[in-house]
């Protein structure tokens, strides 16, 4: 770590450092959380998967919206980024009915106030992708909100721009993933403003931590789908009868290995690169 880097924040996965007044360093650890609790066991190389995939997408979506990426560090887990004023909403784009969206639909027939056709089942493909905002929680779960509330938080014109950008990003990534046998069920974006007031994509993008990626060859609506993420860890923790409060349980080696394999499989399928190639030369994802 450069001596000039000043630690300014810790997240569930990332450590944030200030390099100077214009730049930040985002370092993705191998920590994993379930039910908003950081577990004591890490998943080897998870942070490098998140960093490499984010950089891969940043390098390919600049025609849709500018992003904060300046450079990928040689450790494969650190990104140099522009400082932004982040918007106070997270933007989830859903192409399929899953997670909190499915729970919302069961209760109300809508997701974040957006009415959907009756008779849908869990994991169904939606007639068209929808944008569902959420407030950012400092701790605990983010709270889904409707578009009217989001527009009040960021301004109506800005929210219209955010919705258009988020849908364009989702459609671009979903088409890319579909060609590689992967369904992008939903994904979360965080956007901010640079000093000129331009909308900029920040944080991470289109990773297994911020998205639901499903293998297309096993897709079967009517229940949960296998997923390229922390599913193995979640299922293990659920099996223990754990009360989902801190401290979290240790994770056995077999579950760690299975989880790492899913993250790496997602990286390789989406990028078309061997993960070892990325480890040897992180710049490869930018080409």
Describe the structure.
With 287 residues, the protein is an alpha+beta fold. It is built from 7 helices and 16 strands. The strands form 4 sheets. Strands 8, 9, 12, 13, 14, 15 and 16 form a 7-stranded antiparallel β-sheet that branches. A 5-stranded antiparallel β-sheet has the order 1-2-3-7-6. It has a two-stranded antiparallel sheet with strand order 4-5. Strand 10 (110-111) and strand 11 (114-115) form a beta hairpin. The protein is globular, with a radius of gyration of 18 Å.
Mean pLDDT: 95
Largest β sheet strand count, sense and barrel closure: 7 strands, antiparallel
- Principal-axis shape: globular
Low-confidence stretches: none
Radius of gyration: 18 Å
Our measurement of the CA-to-CA distance between the termini, rounded to an integer number of angstroms, reads: 25 Å
The helix content is 25-40%
Brief characterization of the structure:
The chain is built from seven helices and 16 strands. The chain is an alpha+beta fold. The strands form four sheets. Strands 8, 9, 12, 13, 14, 15 and 16 form a seven-stranded antiparallel β-sheet that branches.
Give the SSE layout.
Elements: E1 6-10, E2 14-18, E3 23-28, E4 33-34, E5 37-38, H1 46-58, E6 69-72, E7 78-82, E8 85-86, E9 89-96, H2 99-108, E10 110-111, E11 114-115, E12 125-135, E13 143-144, H3 147-154, H4 156-178, E14 182-193, E15 199-202, E16 211-215, H5 231-239, H6 253-271, H7 275-280
Antiparallel strand pairs: 1-2, 2-3, 3-7, 4-5, 6-7, 8-14, 9-12, 9-14, 10-11, 12-13, 14-15, 14-16
């Amino acid at each position: 770590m450069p001596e000039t880097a000043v630690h300014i924040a810790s997240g569930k996965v990332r450590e944030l450092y200030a390099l100077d007044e214009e730049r930040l360093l985002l370092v993705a650890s191998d920590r994993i959380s379930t039910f908003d609790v950081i577990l004591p066991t890490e998943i080897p190389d998870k942070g490098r998967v998140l960093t490499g995939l984010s950089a891969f997408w940043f390098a390919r979506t600049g025609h849709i919206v500018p992003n904060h990426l300046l450079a990928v560090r040689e450790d494969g887990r650190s990104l140099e980024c522009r400082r932004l004023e982040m918007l106070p909403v997270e933007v989830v784009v859903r192409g399929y009915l899953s997670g909190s969206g499915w729970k919302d639909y069961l209760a109300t027939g809508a997701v974040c106030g957006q009415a959907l056709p009756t008779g849908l089942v869990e994991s169904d493909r939606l007639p068209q992708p929808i944008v569902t905002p959420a407030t950012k929680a400092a701790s605990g779960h983010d709270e889904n909100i409707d578009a009217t509330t989001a527009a009040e938080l960021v301004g109506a014109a800005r929210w219209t721009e955010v919705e258009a950008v988020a849908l364009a990003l989702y459609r671009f990534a979903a088409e890319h993933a579909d060609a590689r046998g992967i369904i992008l069920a939903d994904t979360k974006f965080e956007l901010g403003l640079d000093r000129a007031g331009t909308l900029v994509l920040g944080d991470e993008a289109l990773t297994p931590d911020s998205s639901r990626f499903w293998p297309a060859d096993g897709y079967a609506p009517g229940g949960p789908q296998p997923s390229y993420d922390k599913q193995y860890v979640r299922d293990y923790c659920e099996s223990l009868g754990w009360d989902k409060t801190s401290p979290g349980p240790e994770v056995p080696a077999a579950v760690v290995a299975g989880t790492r394999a899913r993250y790496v499989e997602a990286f390789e399928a989406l990028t078309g690169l061997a993960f070892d190639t990325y480890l040897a030369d992180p710049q490869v994802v930018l080409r």
